[in-house]
Amino acid sequence: MSAPLLRVTGLKKHFPVHRGLPSRVVGQVYAVDGVSFDIARGETLCLVGESGCGKSTVAKTVMRLLAPTAGTVALDGVDISRMGEAQLRAHRRQMQIVFQDPYSSLNPYLSAGAIVSEPLTNFELASGQELEQRVASLFERVGLRVDAVKKYPHEFSGGQRQRLGIARALAVKPSLIVADEPVSALDVSVQAQVLNLLIDLQEEFGLAYLFVSHDLAVVEHIGHRVAVMYLGRIVELAGNADLFGAALHPYSEALLAAAPVPDPELRRERMVLQGDVPSPMAPPPGCHFHTRCPYARERCRTETPPLQEVKPAHWVACHLRPVGGPFGQLTR
Amino acid sequence: MAAVITAAVPAASSSLDWIRRNPTIVIGSTILGLFVAIALIAPWIAGDPLSFDPLNRLKRPSKEFWFGTDQFGRDVFSRVVYGTRISLIVGVSVAVIATVTGLLVGVLCGYYRRLDDIVMRVMDGLMAIPAILLAIALITLMKASLLIVVIAISIPEIPRVVRLVRSVVLSVRGLPYIEAAVASGARSRIIMTRHILPSTVAPLVVQSTYVCASAILIEAGLSFLGAGTPPEIPSWGNVISLGRAFFQISPWIIFFPGLMLAIAVLAINLVGDGLRDSLDPRIARRM
Q: What is the CA radius of gyration of chain A?
């Protein structure tokens, strides 16, 4: 088998915290603390977790909008994590990003046509009439009227703006699109349209997605595999059906239990977590989740559990879930 | 909706509408236009501002001498008309020099943070120099001329523009559309000119009108102190300065140039305020 499209190994991103005058580094925010995963061509990997767990930082570091503190990001077998900006530019064509906020991610001073044609111009892929034609076909493809090229971002609705952002990402025919919460700023009805557009585009162009989201319903709809993040680490990585059917990590279990179910008759046993997420400036030792885990044992407080393949294609980082099972209900 | 409404209204009334919505710009630029016209046609409407006429010293305003005459019998009207040229030249050149330099330095500082640490300290230093002291120093070092005055006024104005531009750049550079530009392969030059520069234009235009107005005032102040434009050039400040000794018996010598100065500065500030309101999208869209 050839190398996966994207292979992230031991990725770390720490942000130094400055304080005082003259400013000194008084600590680090461990936003991403050793994250590894692969994405194959045409695959959607969803990254879920609550706010502040580092999922957007992973997205931005993979895109090299942030420089990683440690670890490697290999795109098509080429490590881009240490490249200089000039060298990196050639590889940027292969991966594009769609942002969460459809308002601040489009330059308000440029027309829609200029926004979508910019990547093509930057990489000198098209000019003149050919450029116009390609922009027009991109507009058509994402479901925007072709005569909207002359409009400015403020003349579009949120959903249309997000389509514009998708058209911009699609322009250079990337093989990977990093989608950083692309639908969480949209209405539910518009969310479905944009998600279906993303799915259609994936089938048509064989795109791979790194899809960051906190919305489990969205993830269930679009994901092939799901990685659950907690406090800068991946705690569980499994196929869609496996994760939503039989989550093994206590945190995933709690996350799934917290998702609303559109059935008023259904009575579920809720697993409600106590306390808050610890500060990423001072993550707890051992398993990051032990402070809130109802099943925590002595070992969890001291020893960091590795992410292990406990079942085929199902990876979990938990001492209570050894390789090979048992996979039953955990006890307190 | 909006498009339908504008289409139904004839073009003439929409420009009338614009005037009604921006009265300060219209009033300010009309007065400014008058000043520019006066400056341009000065040789045809005014006599020689320098010729002495000892027989007509300190005459009060009359049909012959509209603004009266000074202690050498020079026609105050001619001097004030020619002074318009000096003031406008100083105001506009200081505004252009300060804006262009400030924009360049400000964008670079906001974008390259290492440069910023050094350059902003230099700017802090420049800001601490009072324009008047700098002008006096420059003029004692070099021969007094209009150019020296313009340079002396520009230097302390530059840091103000730099700070404004830099603050806009800093607020824009963290926005996702800049990250999107990086991701889509834009080089630094493109990011600065295409994505950052446009956001600085509106505040910069407004700031440049204020710089222009304050330059005219500072020039008059310097001339009044005798540290500005050489005395043979009839700038408003010089006229006022010479008239000061006689202002109790012939107040018209300082009244008219003072009035022109006030009107010119008011007009420029009106334009600036109007532009600020109409260029700010948050205010403009509501109207």
A: 21
Query: Nearest residue on chain B to A120, judged by CA atoms?
Result: B184
Suggest the residue from B113, B117, B171, B177 to mutate for an interface test with chain A (most A CBs closer than 10 A).
B177
**Position of tokens 């530059």?**
B158
Residue B79 maps to which CATH number?
A: 1.10.3720.10
Chain B contacts of A162, Cβ < 8 Å?
none
Report H helices in A123-237. Answer: 128-141, 158-170, 188-205, 216-222
Q: Is-contact A4 A208, C-beta < 8 A?
A: no
ipTM over 0.85? The verdict is yes
SS3 assignment, position A15: strand
Query: Does the bond joining A22 to the residue before it have cis omega, within 30 degrees of 0?
Result: yes
Examine residue B16 and state whether it is found in any structural domain, yes or no: no
Q: Domain for residue B13, yes or no?
A: no
Average pLDDT over residues B124-132: 85
Strand A78-79, strand A95-98: pairing: unpaired
With bands split at pLDDT 50, 70 and 90, how would you rate the model's confidence at A11? very high
Query: Does residue B247 lie within any of the structural domains?
Result: yes
- Other beta carbons within 10 angstroms of residue A321's beta carbon come to 22
In A, minimum Cα distance to B1 occurs at A155
If one counts the domains in chain B, the total is 1
Residue B6 lies in a domain: no
What residues make up the domain containing B251? 34-55+64-284
Would you call A260 helix, strand, or coil by DSSP? coil
**What's this model's pTM, rounded to 2 decimal places?**
0.83
